């Protein structure tokens, strides 16, 4: 029986400083470096692959492939698990004489995969199997005190335990070998605390289990709690240890603790001290947070009594130059990027992370799903039980962890489920990713309509641990708005996790240090291998903003009021800050004014509005920007609301009047129009532009307008003058030439194109017109519209309205050289722009609202199921009123939600009043 020790929060206490003066702390001596940014050279011998069969040096910690040894293996490689690759490590170190009589453990935070450890020629303990788990050996009796010691570690990249290979090595990710996490000596007093486990509930109840000293050695234990500023918060009475166990069970009750949440990651520090002969002997410090996790079946996940939804992503521990070996700085960078996308959760796919990653999640604020390795295979029970214990021993006190995952996608050994509860003092829920288990349906990659069964029509909590797949440019942002609105409003939805955080491109030492994603397999990230931000990064940032702006078109009667919804779980919008900016764009200059708005008092999950104090002349600007920052002054998002229409801004640029004489001439089927320094050649039979020249030479813009998914039945052209303007116009016939085209050439040199047309089908991928332009001739584009990133029909959010300059690149999303934003693709809300060649330029302006600019065609990509197929119209430069959506590796575009479906147009039997209209103005002049 345990003796329960009641911890009272009282204010008579010794200072932490005085305890440290008399009690011993745990010493930590690194034998390796602390991470990828600080390593130590050990002797090394690799038995196969690059640089094999010779003794040399290697950085520790590291993955040996990234140091130029062995063979690169992606998890599907046929020989990856059959490989006999081993690494032999040697290292010499000294320990002081005064450590004799202490307990010395050698600790390995992670070794891939089997590790045999010898100290001074003697085996330290059983071979450790399992790559992602911290383990240690007591080597007190093996050391030479005051002298040099000899450490040998034999590491097998693949395990002799087939279940370990099934769980860890046969997987959809890079397989590395080596001592990839730090190694250190843990130096403890003879009487010491071995382990501390904390359960701190939102109601102030505090429980801790202290394991270590025997009843004969330690008679007392105390716990003192301090807030983040070091101010004492509570104390514990001393008590006797249980008579038959080396365990203290400590209970307490604290009044009104500040709670840990991802929005308010408040951490306390507990100082545990054991006493010997009445004197403090060993002290251990642990950070923790007060918070409670509760699963209400057929309802949801409640943290601190609040129902929460996961806005999450799957994350591998990875860097191109160092593989799975990371650092605290890398953990900080990763978490900050997730927070920048307004995420509140991360899943540890598919293995437990470095300790410092969890520290950062604790301190910056993310919910964590911590996962036992197991991709499509699983550990046997004997091995798995040991590794579950090692994982929970290592991670148990992190308040960020709210869920455990037992493997992934069939890699679940059901016999291991009971051990999570046995080893976890907090009894956190356990899920089986991809299965219905424990009241959670975590099925991966279900269609938006959730197809069949439990997702939409079931009774369980819906928490897909992977729901949109980011291979290349599909998934992630494409479809997330449809999915998230459904998740947000479905009471049984607990949110979900995207696949995955970053493209896993590894530096290939055997291929001139090139970056390799194993073709399509690891090009799944929202960011590139060095955190290059794709368009989806900003789409997610807007869609998952905890301050949600209702759609608003700015018109004459706008009073500055914008409707918003507070989608925080714990934060009132009055804790945020709101600012605004008005901007006007002119040809050579811009004008802007800015200010702040009062933060509205809106409780979580409630609705309200923010009042923008607009100046009297606000209508003279082109766009209103509204920026919201959180309580730490980090931007949630900047929304843009266009004020001016394309017709308004176009009127400031387009010049129709002029003194130039327009000359025309005909030869065969060609009509040549000359005005100013421009020569325009049109085809009299079909109205298409044949060629354009100006004073600097030919502009290779021609062969248009060609209707996309429409019929170019322009016929019966007539030429006439209207004032000083020359007009070339087709005839209207509702049966044969119901699509019409009209060119107007103005004395100023500007050229107007008007197209009235009907798409060829009720459902279409596209609607609009195309022109030819050789891709090799384009240098850059400067345009007014939404930018700077390209869009798809099912990924329109994340951009801002403005003027954007883009230099040509040939980037394919998810592939080298990862230059973003991509140049080629669709660009939304196009008002007008300049198109530059190396020696020339031309201008296009529109009066259409909602027009898309298409720039060329990215390389065709697909997958084995033909889900990911980015569709583009013919031609090179297009002006579209309907564009295509995009699918992903796991979803066809139409199954990602309504935005992924085709465009729908009505033809009303070709009634001219119902036709679609495109109205463009061109300035081809070099002057």
TrEMBL record:
Per its record, how is this protein called by name? beta-galactosidase
A GO molecular-function term, please?
carbohydrate binding
Q: Name one Pfam family in it.
A: Glyco_hydro_2_N
Beta galactosidase small chain/ domain location is: 724-828
**Where is the organism placed in the taxonomic lineage, from the top?**
Bacteria, Pseudomonadati, Bacteroidota, Chitinophagia, Chitinophagales
Q: Write down the InterPro entries for this protein, in alphabetical order.
A: B-gal_small/dom_5, Bact_Beta-galactosidase, Beta-gal/glucu_dom_sf, Gal_mutarotase_sf_dom, Galactose-bd-like_sf, GH, GH-type_carb-bd, Glyco_hydro_2
Please verify whether the record's keywords include Membrane: no
Give the family per the record: Belongs to the glycosyl hydrolase 2 family.
Entry superkingdom = Bacteria
One of the GO biological process terms? lactose catabolic process
**Assembly and binders:** Monomer.
Task: Name the EC number(s).
Answer: 3.2.1.23
An example Gene Ontology cellular component term from the record?
beta-galactosidase complex
UniProt keyword annotation of RNA-binding present:
no
Among Gene3D superfamilies, the record links this protein to: 2.70.98.10, Galactose-binding domain-like (2.60.120.260), Glycosidases (3.20.20.80), Immunoglobulins (2.60.40.10)
- Domain Glycoside hydrolase family 2 immunoglobulin-like beta-sandwich spans what residues? 191-291
Glycoside hydrolase family 2 catalytic domain boundaries: 293-418
Q: Which reaction does it catalyse?
A: Hydrolysis of terminal non-reducing beta-D-galactose residues in beta-D-galactosides
Q: Which cofactor does it need?
A: Ca(2+)
Alphabetically sorted, this entry's keywords are: Calcium, Glycosidase, Hydrolase
Question: What are the residue boundaries of the Glycosyl hydrolases family 2 sugar binding domain, all occurrences included?
Answer: 56-188
């Amino acid at each position: 029986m345990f003796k329960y020790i009641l911890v009272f929060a009282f204010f008579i206490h010794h200072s932490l400083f005085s305890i440290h003066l008399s009690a011993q702390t745990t010493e930590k001596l690194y034998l390796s470096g602390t991470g990828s940014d600080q390593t130590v050279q050990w002797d090394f011998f690799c038995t196969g692959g690059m640089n094999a069969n010779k003794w040399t040096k290697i950085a520790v910690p590291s993955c040996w492939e990234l140091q130029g040894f062995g063979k690169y293996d992606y998890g599907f490689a046929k020989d990856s698990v059959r490989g006999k690759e081993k690494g032999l490590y040697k290292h010499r170190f000294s320990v002081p004489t005064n450590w004799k009589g202490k307990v010395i453990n050698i600790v390995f935070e992670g070794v891939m995969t089997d590790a045999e450890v010898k100290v001074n020629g003697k085996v330290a303990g059983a071979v450790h199997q399992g790559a992602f788990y911290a383990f240690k050996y007591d080597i007190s009796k093996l050391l030479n005190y005051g002298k040099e010691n000899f450490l040998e570690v034999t590491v097998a990249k693949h395990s002799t335990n087939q279940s370990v290979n099934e769980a860890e090595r046969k997987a959809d990710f890079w397989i590395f070998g080596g001592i990839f996490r730090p190694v250190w000596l843990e130096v403890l007093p003879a009487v010491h605390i071995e382990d501390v486990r904390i359960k701190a509930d939102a109601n102030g109840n505090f429980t801790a289990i202290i394991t270590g000293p025997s009843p004969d050695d330690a008679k007392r234990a105390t716990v003192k709690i301090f807030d983040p500023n070091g101010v004492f918060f509570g104390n514990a009475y001393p008590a006797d240890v249980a008579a038959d166990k080396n365990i203290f069970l400590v209970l307490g009750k604290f009044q009104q603790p500040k709670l840990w949440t991802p929005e308010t990651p408040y951490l306390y520090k507990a100082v545990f001290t054991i006493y010997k002969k009445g004197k403090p002997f060993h002290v251990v410090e642990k950070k923790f947070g007060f918070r409670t996790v509760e699963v209400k079946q057929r309802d949801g996940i409640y943290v601190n009594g609040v129902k929460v939804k996961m806005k999450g992503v799957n994350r591998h521990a990875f860097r191109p130059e160092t593989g799975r070996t990371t650092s605290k700085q890398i953990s900080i960078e990763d978490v900050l990027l997730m927070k920048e996308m307004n995420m509140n959760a991360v899943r540890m796919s598919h293995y437990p992370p470095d300790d410092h990653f969890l520290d950062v999640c604790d301190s910056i604020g993310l919910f964590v799903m911590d996962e036992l390795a197991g991709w499509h295979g699983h550990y046997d029970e004997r091995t798995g039980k040991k590794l579950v214990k090692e994982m929970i021993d290592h991670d148990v006190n992190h308040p960020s962890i709210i869920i455990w995952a037992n493997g992934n996608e069939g890699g679940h050994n059901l016999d291991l489920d009971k051990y999570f509860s046995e080893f976890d003092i907090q009894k956190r829920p356990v899920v089986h990713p991809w299965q219905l288990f424990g009241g959670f349906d975590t099925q991966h990659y279900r269609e938006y309509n959730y197809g069949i069964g439990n997702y939409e029509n079931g009774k369980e909590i819906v928490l897909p641990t992977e729901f949109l797949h980011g291979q290349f440019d599909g998934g992630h942002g494409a479809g997330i708005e449809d999915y998230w609105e459904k998740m947000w409003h479905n009471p049984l939805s607990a949110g979900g996790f995207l696949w995955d955080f970053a493209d896993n491109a590894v530096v290939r030492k055997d291929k001139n240090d090139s970056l390799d994603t194993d073709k399509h397999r690891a090009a799944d990230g929202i960011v590139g291998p060095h955190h290059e931000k794709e368009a989806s990064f900003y789409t997610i940032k807007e869609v998952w903003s905890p301050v949600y702006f209702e759609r608003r078109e700015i018109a004459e009667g706008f009073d500055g009021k914008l409707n918003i919804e507070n989608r925080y779980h714990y934060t009132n919008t009055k804790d945020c800050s709101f600012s605004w900016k008005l901007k006007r764009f002119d040809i050579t200059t811009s004008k802007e004014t800015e200010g702040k708005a009062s933060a509205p008092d809106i409780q979580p999950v409630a609705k309200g509005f923010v009042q923008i104090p607009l100046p009297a002349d606000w209508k003279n600007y082109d766009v209103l920007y509204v920026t919201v920052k959180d309580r730490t002054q980090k931007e949630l998002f900047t929304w843009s609301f266009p004020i001016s229409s394309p017709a308004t801004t176009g009127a400031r640029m387009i010049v129709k009047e002029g003194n130039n004489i327009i000359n025309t001439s005909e030869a065969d089927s060609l009509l040549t129009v000359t005005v100013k320094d421009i020569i325009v050649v049109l085809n009299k039979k079909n109205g298409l532009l044949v060629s354009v020249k100006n004073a600097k030479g030919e502009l290779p813009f021609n062969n248009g307008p060609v209707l996309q998914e429409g019929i170019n039945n322009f016929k019966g052209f007539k030429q006439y003058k209207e004032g000083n303007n020359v007009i070339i116009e087709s005839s209207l016939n509702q049966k044969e030439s119901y699509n019409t085209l009209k060119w107007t050439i103005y004395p100023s040199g500007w050229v107007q194109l008007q197209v009235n047309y009907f798409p060829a089908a009720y459902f279409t991928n596209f609607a609009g017109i195309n022109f030819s332009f050789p891709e090799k001739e384009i240098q850059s584009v400067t345009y007014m519209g939404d930018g700077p990133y390209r869009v798809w029909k099912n990924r329109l959010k994340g951009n801002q309205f403005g003027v954007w300059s883009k230099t040509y690149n040939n980037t394919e999303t998810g592939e080298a050289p990862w230059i973003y934003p991509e140049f080629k693709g669709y660009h939304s809300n196009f008002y007008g722009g300049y198109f530059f060649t190396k020696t020339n330029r031309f201008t296009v302006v529109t009066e259409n609202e909602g027009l898309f600019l298409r720039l060329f065609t990215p390389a065709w990509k697909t997958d084995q199921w033909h889900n990911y197929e980015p569709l583009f119209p013919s031609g090179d430069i297009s002006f579209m009123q309907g564009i295509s959506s995009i699918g992903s590796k796991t979803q066809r575009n139409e199954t990602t939600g309504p935005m992924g479906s085709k465009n729908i147009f009505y033809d009303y039997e070709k009634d001219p009043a119902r036709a679609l209209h495109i109205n463009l103005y061109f300035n081809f002049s070099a002057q």
